[in-house]
Amino acid sequence: MTITTTVNGIERSVDIAPEASLLTLLRDELGLTGSKNACEQGECGSCSVWLDGELVCSCLVAALQAEGRSVATIESLGDDARLHAVQEAFVEAGAVQCGFCTPGLVVAVADLLERDPHPTDETIREALAGNLCRCTGYAKILSAVHVAEEASR
Amino acid sequence: MGGLIPRTLAEALEARAANPDAVPVAGGTDLMVAVNFGRMHPSQLLDLTRVEELATWERAGAGIRVGAGMTFARIARELPELTALAQASRSVGSPQIRNRGTLGGNIATASPAGDALPALAAYDAEVVLASVRGERRMRWDEFLLAPKRNALAGDELIVGVEWHVADGPGSFAKVGTRNAMVIAIASVCLQLDRGARRVRVALGSVAPTVVRAREAEEFAAEVIDWDDPERPPSARAAAEFGAFAAAAARPIDDLRGSAGYRRRAVEVLARRALLWAADDRRVVAA
Amino acid sequence: MSVSVRGGRVGERARRIDGIPKATGAHAYASDLSAENMLWGVTVRSPHASARILRIDAHAAARAPGVVCVLTAGDLPAARTFGLEFADQPVLADGVIRYAGEPVAVVAAETHEQARRAAELVEVAYEPLPAVLDMEDALRPDAPQLYEFGNVLRHVHIVRGDPEADAEVCVDRYYETAMQDQAALGPEAGLAVPAADGSVDLYAATQWLHVDRQQIAACLGLPEEMLRITLAGVGGAFGSREDIHVQIHACLVALRTGRPVKMTVGREESFHAHVHRHPSRIWIRYGATRDGALVSADVRVLMDGGAYASSSPPVLGNAATFAAGPYEVPNVRIEGTVVYTNNPPCGAMRGFGAPQVCFAYESAMDALAATLGMDPVELRLKNAVRTGSTLPTGQALTGSAPVRETIERCSAIPLPPEERATGRDPIAYPGGAGNVGRGEALRRGVGYAVGFKNVAYSEGFDDAAEATVTLRPSADGPVAVIRTAAVDYGQGLYTVLAQIARTELDVDEVVFEPVSTESGSAGSTSASRQTTMSGGAVLGACREIAEALAGRVLEEPITRTCTYHHRATTGLDADGQGSPHVSFSFVTVRAVVEVDEELGLVRVVQLAAAQDAGRVLNPQGAEGQVEGAAAMGLGLALTEELRLEGGAITNASFTDYLLPTILDVPPIETVFVEEPEPDAPYGVKGIGELATIAVTPAIVSALRAATGRELNRVPVRPDDLVGIRPPAATTGRAPIPDVPGQKAIPEYHGLRLGQQKLMKGRNT
Predict the structure, then answer these.
(1) Which end of chain B has fewer CB atoms within 10 angstroms, the N or the C?
(2) Looking at the 3D structure of chain C, how many domains does it have?
(3) C-alpha–C-alpha distance, residues C693 and C445, integer Å
């Protein structure tokens, strides 16, 4: 089936099984490999993207469900030349080790700070409960959120 | 084979009737896991996320109808006064999951551990089903038949849930082995109804479907001083209430928890829930 | 990856050199790679733990849409087995299945989905056989024998002094640790690209390129130079990328079809595709004088190695040599065994045998303190080893060993303030997002643990590391170019190597060439060894360059290659005596927990670590290592356990294999003790594994303090804390097997050696 969806501002049409996940569509069909596949069941958050502005696990969205909608991925936030404030904060705070969880976390943190620019630690923890990290113990991820939110003051 | 993307409820019902093999999908938080793992190969999907009529709620007096398409995030945000359901919604997974998972999906999946189900049982809610043949209602316990089995007819969709909002405090609590993202090992939902002078208690994950602890409810109704919110049930009465609730559980040993622990958890959570309700009554009254 | 980065010298803040591409999603992990005309490979695995393969029928699979080939054992062109210590693990099962999850066939198709569907069509007829599923059963004479030489893979016997020496006070305890999983987020993956001349380029996630090449080439029937391995991005490893995963399968299909082949696995299959942490049973008896001086230690360690050897022999070597703890004990007997069973193979995981025994000896030390009526911290201070002490193997601690200082500095870290029981945000109670409490039945507990392990490889292995550095002139000043085959899978090794180059050569810009087998071996990224070993190689090369430059202005590039060796170690003699380890690192951890006593739910309030580090080269990176290590130790203490039924993993998903979330891991206060390690570059000591080792017993110690429960098994479950499940019981110590010597048994039977070939005999 042909699915037409706007990804990072550009309309894309892709031939894909309608029950394939949006994650598969992004990674395998569009080559947007920034979103990761670490669990395929919405437990780890490494595939986090925005669907019509809402934070979702793209592995749980069927390609069909992206038809006519707009998707924003980690690739929309920044690049080498210009980092998004959250990306800069992650690097600055030492919150990146192997980095596999980083794109999903950056998206989730960017989403949080848009809704709550100066969150408490409890709020941050609840907001990031769906993003697993195996390398950092989360300590510097919390610091990164504070670095990002302070940079925006 | 394409997919089906109805925009209205009428379209959705027609699509459902015309394509009995098409699998309805809303949040996808259960369905897509099965698809991703190769356990399901749906020949066609019926995407319900564009049917705005399903994603609404309305109150009319003491009655409420919450659409099947309401996500847990929206329920927690828009219906915080329905404390039990709101707490259950907040306890589901993560923000990503809450932004997608729907009430209707939770009901349709009919897992013994479904987070919204104890609240619906405690509310004595009715599930509203629709098809091209019309609308019908089923009480929650008529709809939830067995683990992962419901009473949906092949051409029906869940459109919403209805109940009378009880006047009184309520709560939902669930136990898991880590502090977030858990499938409940045991859960308890309690709802006080000051008007009817009744207590409703529902247990999750401790039986094939969600169950009400009827004896515990009767006992609670008697030990609560309905006229004087300043007089909470005694510690001993609360403990006895907990024991009654635990006796209503029929838990099994499985990968996630032991039957013995589940019974213990129900006992503790039920006791606490009763005392919390008593506390919350006083706060409101003051 | 030719990456160029500026800024940061040894001891300073230095941003990760690969931080930006990781934060933007541009960093390519092995699972992100693709090539034109690429095929996808999928492995078919056995559901049975022990079986004979009667028949494999691949006809339906071969005819399925998009399928290009199906391989079984009969198609293997050269060596049919691989392995780190011994080449005992079949590339594809050959008539016999020894564990549930064992690869039986590989299917390759045009798309991933087609390959997956076709894999389901491979029909395998199995005849289930009796299985050995329990490590104590494996030692019974009537147990099914996995190999002709029996079920014992290795037994280590250590005796020093008089184990029967009198002691005024004794504690005798039994402990169990579960099978933990590394659960790196990045899945197993690789891309194999065949070249016209019959050679292969492999891009894969791994921990050691050269040991992979050695095994893969042998199985392809190629000389090693015809297999070029370039490191792809690694999404974590923690031991699970030391063994071969998809690489041989992908290369075989690539050679067979002449097309590039990508293989990657989903989470469920990932659990079956790598080794796990050895579950263990440990019997430990400490004897002491009435005022707390240890007199004797008698420890029996039993570990379940699963179906194949992997790294079990040195894991057991570690467990046995560390089993008496970082304490002065004049009289010691240690009997350690690792057995084969039909359970999934176990091997390297952060800590490598040290976590299991640390849980036992630190729990026993707490029990001893209680019996003596002594403060547990005082007991440890009294008995801690120091520089000059002798370990149970007779090895003298010649290096830095500031154990007492770590204990003192850890206990000096301020405790978290008392918190009000009521009125908190609901998620700040044990049970977190479940809304289970408003402050009822909360009890706090505090516990300490001291852990230690070795740095680098042991028992005579010369795991040298090579690095090449070039200093070349440029318009903006000299640039240092580093060429290393060392893997950085997240710990920040490349950042540290850059800091060393900047410091030694007084440059700002450092460039890294792609990491591949074009360079000489840097050894494994494991054993907390790379900062020392590759750091030493880079340091050595830089110093040679500085010497060659001798203060002149740089006009032409200068290149130097340095191979860094650590000092020689020995094996163990018949009494377990020798100098088996290079050097040691220590840590003291304190845990503060809050328990909901009625529900048995735990909230870890604070972890505090005093890490012995020698010299901290990158403070932020070093903290990150301690914090991450601590979280893994917390997982083994509270939530992580692979469950087996009939030898098959039943919780192979993140829904039921529970990694700690951000709501489970508390703030971690870290202080570093910097007493330089003699003979190490800058005096560094490896740190990456230590907090994992000690956090588990520290948390359980705190739980015992909070609840009074015995808690002799990890992970601790709510059932244990509320007293529904009794402590793990034992009918007595596992019997001691009859073995020819201290080495791994296959060695006595001439089994083809693996990793050892790569390293032995090059000690200078």
Answers:
(1) C
(2) 3
(3) 20
Compute the Cα dihedral for B198, B201, B207, B209 and give only its sign. Answer: positive
Q: Which residues of B touch C598 (CB under 8 A)?
A: 268
**For all residues of chain B together, what is the average pLDDT?**
96
The β-bridge relationship of strands B23-25 and B45-47 is parallel
Question: Which residues of chain B have a CB within 8 Å of the CB of A42?
Answer: 29, 32-33, 93-94, 96-97
Nearest CB among C16, C25, C184 relative to A91 is that of C16
Question: Amino acid identity of C47?
Answer: P
b (16+ CB within 10 A) / e for C422-437: eeeebbbbbbbbbbbb
Interface ipTM above 0.90: yes
C392 and C472 share a domain?
A: no
* pLDDT at residue C750, as a whole number: 82
For C678, the enclosing helix (H) or strand (E) is none
Q: Which residues of chain C have pLDDT under 50?
A: 1, 760-764
Q: How many other β-carbons are positioned within 10 Å of the β-carbon of residue A11?
A: 10
Kindly state whether residues C546 and C560 are assigned to the same domain. yes
The mean pLDDT value for A57-70 works out to: 97
- Written as six digits, the tokens of C429 are 């109670």
Rounded CA-CA distance C307/C537 in Å is 37
Q: Do C32 and A27 touch (CB under 8 A)?
A: yes
Residue in C315, C306, C310 with CA at minimum distance from that of residue C339: C306
Q: How far apart are CA C747 and CA C309, in angstroms?
A: 11
Q: Bridge-partner residues for C333, per DSSP?
A: C159, C298
CB C44 within 8 A of CB C124: yes
Q: Do B93 and A130 touch (CB under 8 A)?
A: yes
Mean pLDDT of A93-104: 98
Distance in angstroms (rounded) separating the CA atoms of residues C278 and C306? 8
Q: Is the peptide bond before B169 cis (omega within 30 degrees of 0)?
A: no
Q: Confidence band (pLDDT; 50, 70, 90) for B93?
A: confident
Burial A33-46 (b: 16+ CB within 10 A, else e): bbbbbbbbbbbbbb
Taking the CA of residue A112 and the nearest CA in chain C, the distance in Å comes to: 15
* Contacting residues for B10 by C-beta, under 8 A, at least 6 apart: none
Here the CATH number for the domain that contains residue C330 is: 3.30.365.10
Cβ atoms within 10 Å of C385's Cβ, excluding its own: 22
C256 token code pair: 């067979």
Claim: this prediction has a pTM higher than 0.95: yes
* pLDDT band at B27; cut points 50, 70, 90: very high
Q: Is residue C733 part of a domain?
A: no
C-alpha to C-alpha distances, A135 to A95, C186, C452, C671, C688, nearest whole angstrom:
9, 11, 20, 19, 11
| Residue C254 phi, psi dihedral angles, 5° rounding | -60, -45
How far does the CA of residue C641 sit from the closest CA of chain B (Å)? 11
Distance between CA C555 and CA C28 in Å, rounded? 36
**pLDDT, tens digit, for every residue of B173-215?**
999 989 988 899 999 999 999 999 999 999 999 999 999 999 9
Architecture of domain A85-151: Orthogonal Bundle (1.10)
Q: Domain check: are C340 and C472 in the same one?
A: no
Domain hosting residue C206, numbered range: 33-129+186-236+241-273
Residues C712 and C651: their CA atoms lie apart, in Å, by 23
Assess whether C490 and C516 both reside in one domain: yes
Q: Which of C16, C185, C495 to mutate to test the interface with A (most CBs of A within 10 A)?
A: C185
Both tokens of residue B214? 């009827």
**C660 with B171: Cβ contact below 8 A:** no
**Candidates A38, A74, A92; nearest CB to C25:** A74
Q: Rounded to 5 degrees, what angle do the CA atoms B192, B137, B20 make? A: 130
The pLDDT score that the predictor gives to residue C756 is 57
**pLDDT on residue C758:** 56
Q: Are residues C265 and C390 in the same domain?
A: no
